[in-house]
Structures are given as C-alpha cells and as structure tokens.
C-alpha cells in the first residue's frame, strides 16, 4: 500500500516579517508622505521602526503562533503611533488563533487573518468606509478566505487577497476619515489615500513572498 503524503503550501512567519520590514522600509517615504497630507507624517517611520524590531525579535525556530505573538508584542512596545497597537493586536490575535498549529497553511492563515481583523476592529472601532487600514485589510481577509475555501492554491488565494487589499487602499481616496488623526480634518481628508490602508496592502502582499512551497 502506498500512502500519499502531500504537504500543503504554507507561509513562513519569519520570512513574512522580513518581507514586511523590507517593504515598509522601501516605501517609508511614500507612507510618510501619505500620512503628512492628512495625519502627522510619521507612518513610514513608525512601520519601519516597528518591523525592524520585529525581525530582531522573531525566532524562526519557534512555532508560527508563538512567532506571531512575539511580533505583535514587539510592535505594541516599539511603535508609539496608532499603527503600533493596532498591528500589534492584529498579530497577537493572529498568533492566538494559530495556537499550536505547526504550519500556516491556507485554512490556518485564513483563521489567523480573520482574528487579526477582528482584533483591529475591536481595538479601533473602525467600520468599513471610515478611511482606515480596515478598508484594505477587510477585503483582503475576505478574499483570502474565499480563495482557501475554493480549494485552490494558497499562492492564488494570497494573490487575490493582495489585489483586494490594493484596491481597498485605493478606495480610501474619496472617503472622509471618521477614525484616527485624519478624522480631525473632516471633509479636508477627502482626496487622499489612507497611509495605514496603504501599509496594510504591503503587509498582505508580503505574504506571497513568504510562501514556503513544500508540496
Ligand atoms: P498616528 O495616527 O498615531 O500618527 P500612524 O501614522 O502610524 O499613527 O498610523 C495611522 C494609521 O492608523 C491611519 O492611516 C489609519 O489607517 C490607522 N488608524 C488610525 N486610527 C484607527 C482606528 N481607530 N482603527 C483602524 N485604523 C486606524
Ligand atoms: Mg501618523
């Protein structure tokens, strides 16, 4: 008798964090420019500082859930702006949802991202259309879940999630901000892309470069 063992594709958390750190650093001036228009101009610096600290801290030999929790705690303790506690909570919740799962395959990743989004919404109370990271992360999480439930390749589900996140980030341009610093500007926040939604799309896109194709 021949036993078929197929190992599904999975995301390597340490690689994901390295890819995010590189992406937010490469885009730091763009993120800062977006945040300067309707915020205080620190988003590129915040994300770069936070994810640099994360890659110092994350131990690739730990199980994925533990790595995510460590990454989340590091963001909370190193980033002063709103994005630190928000992404910190997101990654900690993701890690708790992953639990003891040995790998971040499609179904585990879908649960992790659902939990991340729920954590952001619980902490920040932003609704879709409020011109925040939720407008990028929400569509991405739903696209990933749909792709995974369709039973296709994880790479395809992540590509769909990335496209949804990028579209979601662009969709913030005509919105009026109702949460965060940009909301202080009222109608003057209209016409600018939200910085946090933009970096969220970078974080989702980085998943695709952190795929461990094992099977
Ligand atoms: P700060 O606003 O404290 O300067 P950052 O500039 O690092 O922090 O992050 C700003 C981003 O945080 C915004 O572009 C927005 O996407 C996100 N954000 C702010 N408040 C909220 C909230 N209540 N819920 C979700 N996201 C939020
Ligand atoms: Mg800011």
Please count the helical segments.
9
What binds here, in terms of ligands, is: adenosine-5'-diphosphate, magnesium ion
Number of strands: 3
Sheet with the most strands: spatial strand order: 2-1-3
The main sheet comes to: 3 strands, antiparallel
List segments where confidence is low: pLDDT < 50 over at least 5 consecutive residues: none
The level of helicity is 55-70%
Order of helices and strands: EHHHHHEHHHHE
Oligomer: single chain
**Which structural class is indicated by helix and strand composition?**
mainly alpha
Approximate strand percentage: under 5%
Shape: globular
- Rg, nearest Å: 17 Å
> How widely separated are the two ends?
21 Å
> Could you tell me the mean pLDDT?
95
Structure description:
By secondary structure, the chain is mainly α. It is 65% helix and 3% strand. It is built from 9 helices and 3 strands. A 3-stranded antiparallel sheet has the order 2-1-3. 53% of the residues are buried. The model has no long low-confidence stretch (mean pLDDT 95).
């Amino acid at each position: 008798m021949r036993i078929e063992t197929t190992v599904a594709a999975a995301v390597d958390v340490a690689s994901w964090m390295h890819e995010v750190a590189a992406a937010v650093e490469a885009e730091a001036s763009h993120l800062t420019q977006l945040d300067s228009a309707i915020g205080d101009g620190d988003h590129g610096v915040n994300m770069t500082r936070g994810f640099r600290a994360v890659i110092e801290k994350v131990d690739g030999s730990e199980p994925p859930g533990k790595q995510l929790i460590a990454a989340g705690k590091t963001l909370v303790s190193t980033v002063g702006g709103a994005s630190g506690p928000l992404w910190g909570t997101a990654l900690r919740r993701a890690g708790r949802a992953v639990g003891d799962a040995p790998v971040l395959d499609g179904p585990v990743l879908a649960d992790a991202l659902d939990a991340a989004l729920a954590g952001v919404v619980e902490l920040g109370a932003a609704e879709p259309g409020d011109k925040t990271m939720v407008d990028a992360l929400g569509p991405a999480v739903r696209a990933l879940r749909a792709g995974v439930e369709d039973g296709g390749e994880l790479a395809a589900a992540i590509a769909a999630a990335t496209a949804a996140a990028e579209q979601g980030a662009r969709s913030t341009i005509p919105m009026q901000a109702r949460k965060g610093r940009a909301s202080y500007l009222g109608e003057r926040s209209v016409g600018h892309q939200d910085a946090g939604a933009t970096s969220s799309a970078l974080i989702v896109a980085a998943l695709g470069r952190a795929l461990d194709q094992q099977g």
